[in-house]
From TrEMBL:
CDD domains: CGS_like. The keyword Lyase applies. The modification N6-(pyridoxal phosphate)lysine is found at K211. It catalyses: L,L-cystathionine + H2O = L-homocysteine + pyruvate + NH4(+). This is Cystathionine beta-lyase.
């Protein structure tokens, strides 16, 4: 039976019945192990032979046990994929992707609104390995014209990391397919639940499970998902070579966290639209960046390509970044910190320097504040935001 995604997410990872007692707990336990024991040598040889054929039987703790396989199924269900490679963090998943697709001499085109550590990966590692990267602005640049003879991949994050600009993945997929390139997308924003790059034409989707999949700010985890068997084989080979391993306890927490994504995500989205409305009514706020907000320039693309929204929004305040600091410090319900996707509200004072490479940014001297709207009461959140706005002294109105 092809059940709805919400139903499947609840039933993946149910513990099987014990053949002796005929009973089972609801959830698969966290299967911690380093060594996997084999019943006899025949079973061991059978397993090794299956692995040689490209299957992924249980062989050793590093490549995961049943708990891990259940979470792989969760990511496949979320992303509409057939193959999931788990990673110890979202950034590790991005690394596996880059190390799988690219080799010395290759070039990758990256959208300029990506998550900043991707630029660091490029500077710190890719360049040393003889892999070159250049950045493009979706909506401004003619991407096809930027493809070089050695370009192997187009890598995007949609919506973008700080200002949530929507990217037209189907249009990029046409370009990538015409030139035989891999199109990969960071889908942490959608986490498969509200946005599906593979369905839109991307070949690989990477997700920081750390965010909405886990949903409780207590685990680092990532995944690389694809439908392409040949790419999947290369992804698993790369993962195996790199020696990453993911704790069964972390996997178990992710399995537990994702059970409530169907109620968390719409509630984050609903709260966030209320906060957008609040900011829209305030003269101190020059602009609200959130694709589900009807005034966002990406709204039409969001309506076409996404099935929901989440708790991420940014605002441009009519003051300098320096003048906005008292606002951030005065918030009591918003934790000052990076990351997002947990149940709680967060605030990030965006470094002006990190906006500079984003073509989407108007390059004005105003402050940008990124917020994650949690599951708190919006009455309380709005009261907190209102008192904090009152702490800004030097408005540029
Ligand atoms: C957080 C994040 C990552 C990295 O995830 P970690 O688990 O923190 O390594 C990657 N991409 C995006 C868009 C993110 O927000």
């Amino acid at each position: 039976m092809n059940h709805d995604l919400d139903t499947r997410l609840l039933h993946i990872g149910s513990a099987p019945f014990d053949p002796v007692t005929g009973t089972a707990p609801v959830n698969l336990p966290s299967m911690r192990t380093s060594t996997v024991r084999f019943e006899n040598l025949d079973r061991l040889q059978e397993t090794v032979a299956r692995r040689m054929k490209g299957e992924r039987p249980i062989t050793y703790g590093r490549s995961g046990m049943d708990t891990h396989r259940a979470l792989e199924e969760v990511f496949n269900a979320l992303e509409g994929g057939c193959y999931t490679c788990l990673a110890p963090s979202g950034l590790a998943a991005i690394n596996i992707l880059f190390m799988t697709v690219l080799q010395a001499g290759d070039h990758v085109l990256i959208s300029d609104s990506v998550y900043a550590p991707v630029r660091n990966l490029n500077n710190a590692l890719l360049s040393r390995l003889g892999i070159s990267a250049s950045y493009f602005s979706v909506g401004h640049d003619d991407v096809a014209a930027l493809i070089q003879a050695n370009t192997k991949m187009i890598y995007v994050e949609s919506p973008g990391s700080l200002l949530f600009e929507m990217i037209d993945i189907p249009a990029l997929a046409k370009i990538a397919n015409a030139r035989g390139l891999v199109l990969a997308a960071d889908n942490t924003w959608g986490s498969g639940y509200i946005y599906k790059p593979l369905d839109l034409g991307a070949h690989i989707s990477v997700i920081a499970g750390t965010k909405y999949v886990v949903g409780h700010s207590d685990v680092m985890l990532g995944a690389v998902v694809t439908n392409d068997e040949a790419l999947a084989r290369r992804i698993f080979q790369t993962q195996y070579a790199m020696g990453n391993s993911i704790s069964a306890d972390d996997v178990w927490l992710a399995l537990r966290g994702v059970k409530t994504i169907a109620v968390r995500m719409p509630q984050h989205a609903k709260n966030t639209l209320e906060i957008c409305q609040f900011f829209d009514s305030r003269k101190e706020v020059a602009r609200v960046f959130h694709p589900a907000w009807h005034k966002d320039p990406g709204h039409a693309l969001w309506q076409r390509d996404a099935t929901g929204s989440n708790g991420m929004l940014s605002i441009e305040l009519n003051c300098s970044p320096e003048a906005a600091k008292p606002f951030v410090n005065a918030l009591t319900l918003f934790g000052i910190g990076f990351s997002w996707g947990g149940y709680e509200s967060l605030v990030q004072w965006v470094e002006p320097g990190s906006l500079a490479p984003h073509t989407y940014w108007a390059n004005n001297p105003h402050a940008v504040i990124r917020l994650h709207i949690g599951l708190e009461s919006t009455v309380d959140l709005i009261e907190d935001l209102t008192q904090a706005l009152g702490k800004i002294q030097n408005w540029d109105l």
